[in-house]
Amino acid sequence: MIPRHLQIAFGLMVAVLVALGFYAMHLKRRADAIQALQADMRPVPPPVSGQAGQLKLFVAYDDEGILRQRDVSTTVPSEPSQRARQALRALLAVYVEQPSPHPIGSGADVKDVYILADNSAVIDMNLAFAETHRSGVFVEQMTIVSMLQTLSTAAPQITRAHILVEGKQRETLAGHADLSGFYDMALINQLARELQ
Amino acid sequence: MIPGSKLGKGTRRPALWPGALLLLLCFSAFVLLRSQSPEKKLGVYSPQATYTVSIQDRNGVEYVGLIDLLEPLGKVEARGDKNWKLEFTPTGSDKATELEFSNNKRKGKVRGAQFELPANFLLVSGRGYVPLASLPNLLPRVLELTVQLRESGHRLFLGAVAMKFNAQLRKNPSRLVFTFPAPVNPFLASEGNNTRIVFSREPVVSPGADTINYGDPLITSTAFSESNGAAELTVHGSGPLLATFSDGGRTLTIAGAPQQQAAAPPPPAPYPQTAAPTAEPQPPAVTQALVPTTPRFLVVIDPGHGGDERGAALTETLAEKDVTLAFARRIHRELETKGISAMLIRNSDATLTLDQRAIAANTSRPAVFLSVHASTLGSGVRVYTALLPPVAPTTRSAFLPWTSAQAAFLDSSSTVAGSVAAECNNRKVPVRAIAASLRPLNSITGAALSIELAPPPESNVDDITSEKYQQSIASAITAGIVAVRPKLEAAR
Q1: Cβ contact B205:B163 at 8 Å
Q2: Chain B contacts of A5, Cβ < 8 Å?
Q3: Which element (helix H / strand E) includes B436?
Q4: Cα of A164 to nearest chain B Cα, Å
Q5: Which of A62, A135, A184 faces B311 most closely, judged by CB atoms?
Q6: How far does the CA of residue A47 sit from the closest CA of chain B (Å)?
Q7: Option in B5, B21, B375 nearest A137 (CB)
Q8: Are A144 and A183 contacting, i.e. CB atoms less than 8 angstroms apart?
Q9: Cβ neighbours of A175 in B, within 8 Å
Q10: Tens digit of pLDDT per residue, chain B (492 long)?
């Protein structure tokens, strides 16, 4: 017969073991998330290939609450999805510079842009883009409209676009703007005109 | 080795029951947590506002949050960790009352005088909670009003707001006539031969006995009860009953359905496929009249975020979820003052998913849905309608896609947004109306807009909580809705 105090001690030790297991798991997840964010704090890489040219960006200005068109000289790839990614990277570069007309997190980056056969586009952003984005209806909306309008200008054949974060669908950008579905580019074009 | 024990002999396997017990405890805790009863709430009726406050059970005692309770009645400022202080200034007054309590202590101070609670004061995440039973003694010192708490029914009356009704049975034909001192808009439902009348917004109380037997062949008795912040009147009948309102909502008449009164052959059923008569036929006309109803013109207000989801950090200490709730309550009061029924999706610091908000709103069949947000960017107000391709009302089908149901109602939404923006302009509040892709806005089946409150022009961020500023915008929103009400009603 095992004495009662040993049984109780054993039970408590099992409980402590389970709790410590959960805590260790929590710490590991947190460390992984921090590492992922730190890994993204890197300069925007240059395009692989292409000719020198100009890209049209639609830059959000928070103070005035408007979008302004800006031409930037850069290398312009001929392949549409690479061109679209290059345009979005150029836009994010404007947003991360100091002072910024529409600040976003310094590690924000476009991982890839895919243009599908039905002219739908899927933009894959990194985690830092969403996790460090300011929260608010207007500020999130301005980011999305400026990105999609820039995308639409770089690749006019795109009829709708979906923004993913680290390859996964996300409910909202930072608590407000919907990221759960496709954006109709005709509506984005119209909204961008209203915001200019 | 312990003499007499079998330890160390290696003849017995280690006991497995401590582990099994632990698993059983975990399972029991899981089952208990999963099977919690519905949220308890306190219905509060005051001359300024009618609202509900969540009730929390702690150590077998029912608690309510002081901030939740007092915020709809005036300006509330709370501070402190160990010694928690709350300063309350009633609306329309500049005389502040200070309350001071300490966590897990019964004794505190109200207006500098000692006050003892019937159970310990609780402080959770900077919000103070007092026992429900303490309110009849505590609130008169704060509000300088008579306070009546109906503890079992979870109803709190601040001032002389209780509304007694009069019930009179009339003959030939038998009908029960309820008269109320003010218009009422209860929820009606039929269950067999009984009619349930639920008052969740009106301070209706029983005029005398809770149960009255009439001895009438059709209407046998009525029973009045109160529970979870609402009052319920049940009319028991021996056959199907029909409820009708008259006198601008001041009179409610319960009478037998037409088929019960007519001795001759029943009228032809409008839906032959449902006609198979049973022992207790439910004629379509009567069933339709007693189907649960919602107010004809209801504004549903959704204060954004809440609970674990704090929204934007407007300042180091000010979370968006708190501003949206306070502002939504202001809009709610303003609408009720103008005679428009309004409902808050959340009236406490509760966590709700975007889909839960859309479901709650659509179930209420709102004439207008308002989603409330706050931001430090820019100034004034931004009014958003859904960024969806419009669908002509004629092409609406019985089923709408969940993620774009709002598309069929964009015309109505734009009408309300335009009217609200115009009223803001009239009050010199900077306003901007644009489209945005937001949830739950995209899933709402009715006119829907999102309001984003920003600080007043040329002021600091803290002024976003200014009572005067929020009130002027709440008035503008209300005036905007009132102006288009006839148009929306016609469209419905």
Answers
A1: yes
A2: none
A3: strand B431-436
A4: 15
A5: A135
A6: 32
A7: B375
A8: yes
A9: 305, 309, 311-312
A10: 444 444 444 445 556 666 666 677 666 655 544 444 567 889 888 887 778 888 888 888 999 988 888 888 888 888 877 788 898 988 778 888 899 999 889 999 998 899 999 999 988 877 889 999 999 999 998 888 889 999 889 999 998 888 888 888 888 888 899 998 887 777 777 777 888 888 877 899 988 888 888 888 888 889 999 988 889 989 998 888 888 877 777 888 888 876 544 444 444 333 333 333 333 333 333 333 444 444 468 999 999 999 888 999 998 889 999 999 999 999 999 998 888 888 999 888 888 999 999 999 998 889 999 999 999 999 999 999 999 988 876 555 568 888 899 998 999 999 999 999 999 999 999 999 999 999 899 999 999 999 999 999 988 888 999 989 999 999 999 999 999 998 888 877
Dihedral in degrees, nearest 10, Cα atoms B278, B282, B285, B291: -150
DSSP for residue B478:
H
Count CA within 13 A, CB hemisphere, residue B373: 30
Beta bridge mates, B139: none
Out of A14, A176, A187, the one facing B19 most closely (by C-beta) is A14
Buried b (16+ CB within 10 A) or exposed e, B341-369: bbbbbbbbbbebebeebbbbbbebebbbb
What are the backbone dihedrals phi and psi of residue B98, each rounded to the nearest 5 degrees, phi first? -110, 135
3-state SS string for B297-335: CEEEEEECCECCECCCECCCCCEHHHHHHHHHHHHHHHH
**C-alpha torsion B215→B217→B218→B221, nearest 10:** 20
Question: Of B446, B451, B434, B444, nearest to B488 (Cα)?
Answer: B446
Whether the complex's predicted ipTM surpasses the cut of 0.85:
no
Element (H, E) at B87: strand B83-90
Contacting A residues, span 132-191, partner chain B, CB-CB under 8 Å: 134-139, 141, 144, 171-172, 174-178, 180-181, 183-184, 186-187, 191
**Is residue A175 within 8 Å of A135, Cβ to Cβ?**
yes
Q: What are phi and psi of A174, to 5 degrees?
A: -145, 40
Beta-carbon separation of A65 and B432 below 8 A: yes
Chain B residue with the nearest C-alpha to that of A9:
B18
- Chain A interface disruption, residue of B12, B30, B377, most A CBs within 10 A: B377
